[in-house]
Amino acid sequence: MSQIDKLIYSVMRGNQDNNINFNDLRHILKFLGFGERIRGDHYIYTKDGIDEIINIQPIGAKAKPYQVKQIRNIILKYSLGGSENV
Predict the structure, then answer these.
(1) Does the pLDDT of residue 85 top 80, yes or no?
(2) Which of 40, 46, 58, 80 has the lowest CB atom count within 10 Å?
(3) Cα separation of 86 and 65, whole Å?
(4) What's the whole-model pTM score?
(5) How does pLDDT run across 11-43, given as a tens digit for each residue?
(6) pLDDT band at 1 (very low <50, low <70, confident <90, very high)
(7) What value, to the nearest 5°, has the Cα angle with vertex 14 and ends 13 and 16?
C-alpha cells in the first residue's frame, strides 16, 4: 500500500479526524485532482465536475476535524479515489 493510499485510508476510516496532518490532507486533495488556491490561511480547492468548493484552514500542523469529515463526504459522494479507499 502506497503512502497516499494510507493517507486516504486514514481519512476514510473516520476514527482519526482529530489527528490528520494538514499537509497530508492537502496532498490527498491534490492527488485527487483538485486545484489549489491560497488566500491567507485559507486553502481553497476546486475540481471540474465537483459542485462543492473545499475551504480548509490549519490548526497548527493539524486539520480541523469537521473539515476532514467534509472531505470524506465529498470523496464518498463523488466516488473519488476508487472503491479500495472506502
Answers:
(1) no
(2) 40
(3) 18
(4) 0.91
(5) 999 999 999 999 999 999 999 999 999 999 999
(6) confident
(7) 100
